[in-house]
Amino acid sequence: MDSNFILANAQMSKGFPIVYCSDGFCELTGFSRAEVMQKSCACKFLFGPESSESIILSVDEALEERKEFKDEIMFYKKTAVLFWCLLDIVPIKNEKGDVVLFLASFKDITDTKAKAIQEDKKEERRRGRVKTGSQFSSTRLRRSTVLYHISGHMHSREKSKIKLNKNVFGDLPALPEYKVADAKKSKFILLHYSTFKAGWDWLILLATFYVAVTVPYNVCFIGDDDDLTRSTTVSDIAVEILFIIDIVFNFRTTYVSKSGQVIFDARQICIHYLTTWFIIDLVAALPFDLLYAFKVSVVGCGVVIDDGEEMELLPKAQ
């Protein structure tokens, strides 16, 4: 089987995002794995000005109805170079019979199509035929497609069908673990591309903007004047709680590894977060502005009191 393939999540109602793509697919299209991940399984980023609108609609319809699709399509590489491809989309079901993944394989048939077109031109010259319009050209293209299948490529269709038997993919080589992750995933693991996580990230972004405005304001205009009370103390505490909850969520949120695989294992997620963004998030979650508001000044391991005396105790508010 060809190594040019992608896997897409069939359980997402919008777009069916790509969760894995092979190295062969990246070499064929010129796109990197990072550019392909989370794009639609319909691969509209490969279509160009000469792509058939009817084919695009047929691909969308097959994905929505979760049925198999196979046809020859004109695609464009990242460098805008045209190439012909035999696209085969196969829905993959789990033990319950639900479609959980789409396996889309891409076979480069540019050379075969070029030979077929040359043979048709020779036949036209021999019979004295002349192109009469786009309708005739479309008919000739369909005829060459039939000849291509009859010439010996039709038998590959049965070999390329993937059957899910006891969570094992037939002869598919080196597929990522994501194919069975849906059954093994813990209920307490958050998907990094889920709607909830997207909404939560927006909430954290708004909280970050809030801190960026209120902290300088409180320092400049309120300061340590005992006669002034901070009206934003409650909201500041709420924001700090949000940041702490965000750290907890990050310990349970999936991520994409360097190889393009979606990681669901809780231990790997914790190690990845601890070695990347944990220290930065922890420093950002510390309530420095609240400590300043309550006039807590940490020096070494003690607390500085107004008269300058330092006590070797844990930091506490005056």
From TrEMBL:
Catalyzes what? K(+)(in) = K(+)(out)
Key words of the record: Glycoprotein, Ion channel, Ion transport, Membrane, Potassium, Potassium channel, Potassium transport, Transmembrane, Transmembrane helix, Transport, Voltage-gated channel
Q: Which GO terms describe its molecular function?
A: voltage-gated potassium channel activity
Q: Where is the PAS domain?
A: 1-66
Entry's InterPro entries? Ion_trans_dom, K_chnl_volt-dep_EAG/ELK/ERG, K_chnl_volt-dep_ELK, KCNH_animal-type, PAC, PAS, PAS-assoc_C, PAS-like_dom_sf
Q: How does it sit in the membrane?
A: Multi-pass membrane protein
The record's CDD domains line, in alphabetical order, gives: PAS
User: Main localization of the protein?
Assistant: membrane
Q: Which PROSITE patterns match?
A: PAC, PAS
Q: Which residues form the PAC domain?
A: 69-121
Q: Name one GO biological process term.
A: regulation of membrane potential
Instruction: State where the protein is found.
Output: Membrane
Please give the superkingdom of this protein's source: Eukaryota
Q: Which GO terms describe its cellular component?
A: monoatomic ion channel complex; plasma membrane
Name listed for the protein in its UniProt record? Potassium voltage-gated channel subfamily H member 8
Annotated source species = Pleuronectes platessa
